[in-house]
Design a protein that fits this description.
The chain has 15 helices and 19 strands. By secondary structure, the chain is of the alpha/beta class. A 7-stranded mixed sheet has the order 11-13-14-9-8-15-16, sandwiched between helices. A 5-stranded mixed sheet has the order 17-2-1-18-19, with no helix packed on it. Helix 5 links the parallel strand 3 and strand 4. Bound molecules: NADP nicotinamide-adenine-dinucleotide phosphate (NAP).
């Protein structure tokens, strides 16, 4: 038996070695392609996915139980991400070109130094189960890698293999149409932890992108640490996304807030990393009214099928463990008549003292569940926030009066997460230049980066300085004449002008 297991491990490693050799070969060609050519490639992938929309949507729905409308929207988001990165690299200024011109009269003479961002090399992307398009084969991680000029190896998520394969076929068509090196994009469909490990530890791998569980993300970080040459693993893991409901807004808007949050908690059967899992407030009539209205809304929600049986099993287990914790009270649940793979939405509450004495309350229960924390006063509310680990989002539901009355607590909320929201629900992540979808550990492994929006590209690049190069040796981004017309920092001044000759 042990021999069979070892043989399987060796096969996975041998296959992965071939994949990574191809990825490096492709990278060394692809990195020389102009931004215009890389952009055309991304746009062609988007076109080819669009052509398959009618096939992709029902297929993904069958594999993930997600509704057709949501999947249609997710395809649009995915093609939008691809064209967004194409536009970014066509414009070109993202490379952060900076030029410090020489000064021969200085003592000692100052050399000419020019800097820009360059791609790191082959990147491994792990597809996510909860976004079969937008965070899977041709999702945001992949789009940002390809835009940067690196090749990508995608570890397809085992929960939607046919969807991933069909999306990959669209990418292969785009490769053929645009003359991109064949192995610039590769797809690994081996559903074993060994294949994932072999990808992370392979010496040609220069970076890893991941969205999923804390255990999965942590395992990949550990593999990376075992390497002779370490690499970054950008893992987006669990988050319970605390939202504070301040007293003045609760006294005026309890019912509207309850409707807004019932929708957010149960959106996509709660299978969003930005799901609001913790609702904090100070004991008051307003908070009571909010919780009772929230309960009424939650009871109306029909049980719905989760992404796959494993996730549903984890949800049910996580929920029953949570319900065993001392001090927890069920506020409301949708229905107890759920079929296989269906999740019952549930909101519970606990007083702050019990919350503060039991770390288990801060565990993520991935699904349509949220816990309300009832605090005695602002000091206890702040204490609860201080007890939390890093988060993707931190929500402030407040009027201007609340903002003035609770400055100190709100300031603390800023330290918790990558995105701080005022009077919005955290679900729904806009894809744009200013978005931060990241946050302090354990929400992600590196709070300096985002996995959504144009700056997600910064995960796959490194700066390089070129000293005293002849103009002809320089990449277009750094040439004197600025042939690409990009914004550059020349002698500490931002400009699109050419470098002035001395
Ligand atoms: P997951 O178990 O973390 O798996 C995601 C990917 O990572 C899969 O491709 C899996 O590969 C790989 N992987 C996991 N552990 C690994 C290990 N030890 N070594 C190598 N590869 C490993 O996530 P999931 O399947 O999507 O869902 C499971 C749970 O993750 C959910 O119940 C939920 O709690 C959480 N989740 C969180 C988010 C979020 O955004 N925070 C999103 C989705 C899921 P193989 O299985 O193919 O080996």
């Amino acid at each position: 038996m042990q021999q069979t297991l070892n043989a399987e491990k060796n096969t996975a490693a041998a296959n992965i070695d071939g994949v990574m050799q191809n990825a490096l070969y492709a990278f060394n060609q692809y990195k020389k392609f102009s931004s215009a050519k890389r952009a055309a490639f991304l746009e062609t992938i988007a076109d080819e996915i669009e052509k398959l929309r009618e096939q992709l949507v029902p297929l993904a729905s069958e594999e993930t139980n997600l509704p057709l409308a949501r999947l249609n929207g997710e395809i649009s988001r995915t093609t939008g991400q691809l064209t967004m990165f194409a536009a970014l690299i066509k414009e070109g200024s993202w490379v952060e070109a900076s030029i410090d011109t020489a000064d021969a009269n200085r003592t000692p003479p100052k050399p000419d130094i020019r800097k820009m961002l360059v791609p790191v090399g082959p990147v491994v992307v792990f597809g996510a189960s909860n976004f079969p398009f937008a965070f899977s084969t041709a999702g945001g991680d992949t789009a940002s890698v390809l835009a940067s000029g690196s090749s990508v190896v995608i570890k397809a998520h085992p929960a939607h293999p046919e969807t991933s394969a069909l999306v990959f076929s669209a990418m292969q068509k785009a490769i053929a149409k645009t003359g991109i090196p064949q192995h610039t994009v590769q797809h690994v469909t081996d559903t074993s932890n060994d294949a994932g490990k072999a990808l992370v530890i392979h010496p040609h791998t220069k970076g890893v992108g991941f969205t999923g569980s804390f255990a999965g993300g942590k395992a990949l970080v550990e593999y990376a640490r075992q390497r002779e040459i370490p690499i970054p693993v950008f893992a987006e893991m669990g988050s319970i996304n605390p939202v504070v409901f301040y007293p003045d807004t609760l006294s005026k808007n309890a019912e509207a807030l309850a409707a807004q949050y019932a929708a957010s908690i149960t959106l996509g059967v709660g299978q969003f990393c930005t799901n609001p899992g913790l609702l904090l407030g100070i004991k008051s009539k307003g908070f009571d009214n909010f919780l009772s209205a929230l309960g009424k809304e939650i009871t109306k929600v029909q049980p719905q099928k989760m992404l796959h049986s494993g996730i549903c099993f984890s949800y049910k287990n996580g929920l029953s463990e949570m319900l065993e914790q001392q001090g927890l009270q069920v506020v409301a649940q949708s229905s107890t008549d759920a079929n296989d793979n269906e999740a019952v939405a549930l909101v519970a509450s606990v007083d702050a003292k019990a919350f503060l004495s039991n770390k288990h309350f801060t565990e993520e229960v991935f699904g349509p569940y949220s816990l309300a924390i009832i605090c005695d006063d602002a000091a206890q509310l702040k204490q609860c926030l201080q007890s939390l680990n890093g988060q993707l989002t931190s929500g402030i539901m407040a009027t201007e009066k609340d903002v003035a009355d609770y400055t100190d607590v709100i300031e603390w909320q800023h330290t918790l997460a990558g995105r701080i929201l005022l009077n919005n629900a955290p679900t729904g992540v806009e894809v744009c230049a200013s978005m931060v979808h990241g946050g302090p550990y354990p929400a992600t492994t590196d709070a300096r980066f985002t996995s959504v929006g144009t700056t997600a590209i910064k995960r796959w690049v490194r700066p390089i300085a070129l000293q005293n190069f002849f103009d002809a040796m320089l990449p277009d981004e750094l040439k004197n004449d600025n042939p690409l017309g990009i914004l550059r920092l020349i002698d500490n001044v931002y400009t699109r002008d050419a470098v002035r000759k001395a």
